[in-house]
Amino acid sequence: MAEAQNSPTLGSARAGGPPPVGSTTAGSIAVAAESTVVSRMSAPPSFDVADFPVPHGREEEWRFTPLERLRGLHDGTAVATGDGVKVDVQAPAGVTVESVGRDDARLGRAGTPVDRVAAQAYTAFEQASVVTVPKETVLTEPIRIAVHGQGGTAFGHQVIELGAFAEAVVVIDHTGDAVLAANVDYLLGDGAKLTVVSVQDWDDKAVHIAQHNALVGRDASLKSVVVTFGGDVVRLHPRVEYAGPGGEAELFGLYFTDAAQHQEHRLLVTHNAPHCKSNVVYKGALQGDDAHAVWIGDVLIEAAAEGTDTYEMNRNLVLTDGARVDSVPNLEIETGEIVGAGHASATGRFDDEQLFYLMARGIPEQEARRLVVRGFFAELVQQIGVADIEERLLAKIDEELEASVA
């Protein structure tokens, strides 16, 4: 397995060898230099769609995305229909669920749209959903948000807010068929703990473009688990900033990209407060002709963020010929007073030696393949912490593998 790995100190960087055929892997470290992260965006963040030019695919932030398959979300031709998506929220007692207008002060606090689709989603939704967990409330059951596509086009905005020292698990489950552009905001009060699991289990023709914004309070902790299986095109943009020192963010992702699917995850963690931590681990498996996975991992450590401890990693397992991976980690450091910072990216083919080892011990080939892939994803599945979602995920992995030999 080819790997590019970097563990920077001030003024130094190193990178590994080239990726295998059929994939591309690149990484960079910038120390006290012009921001690569800023150069990825064609325009400054804005809530106004008019501030963003229509992308043509030559822009850095759009060069991997198949614009012709976005069904008009990128150029303003997509129009919301009444049969877009149905949203159902099941929340334990004590949790407040509201529908609010665009003038609600909580909307946009966690982050501003950074591309035209996110701005279009913000200007086009009719009602936003706000789920609030009061301060010092510790939930023993998860909040479940079911987003079911009904065949149409929709724009949405979801806010999850935790008061100081509150603790909650939130599952956002996307199913059915839809063309959906959305913004999702996570607001964590001081000392709060939020685990959010976002599942993209769409039907084959669905298109889902979303920006996830998290604002992590002082000594608060966020664990985000993104699981992507279905859809024709899924493009997610998780972003994290800190509202005070001592915050922690763990961003985990698991994706299984099948023939002709495009799955793109573009992450940005901005360390803008001192003594905060972040850890990013995304893993993907790909199979089939024209399966395309994109992972962009950006970490920015600003000058004020002394004592930062951060690491990001992306690993990809290519199961068949005809699949492509683009994996680009970037790390920018504006202060030398950090605890640690590094990134790694690796893409490789299915390990025939592991398969042979298992088959030599009497395990049938298909079962051996299943065990190898399950082992590859095991650490991320364990991070979910919701038993029925974990079981469903493992069943989905088995289903995908069975389809590959059918």
Automatic annotation (TrEMBL):
Cross-referenced Pfam families: SUFBD_core
InterPro entries in the cross-refs: Fe-S_cluster_assembly_SufBD, SUF_FeS_clus_asmbl_SufBD_core, SUF_FeS_clus_asmbl_SufBD_sf, SUF_FeS_clus_asmbl_SufD
GO biological process: iron-sulfur cluster assembly
Residue stretches spanning the membrane: none
Disordered: annotated span: 1-26
Annotated SUF system FeS cluster assembly SufBD core domain residues: 149-376
Biased composition, class Polar residues, residue ranges: 1-10
Family affiliation: Belongs to the iron-sulfur cluster assembly SufBD family.
Protein name, as recorded: Fe-S cluster assembly protein SufD
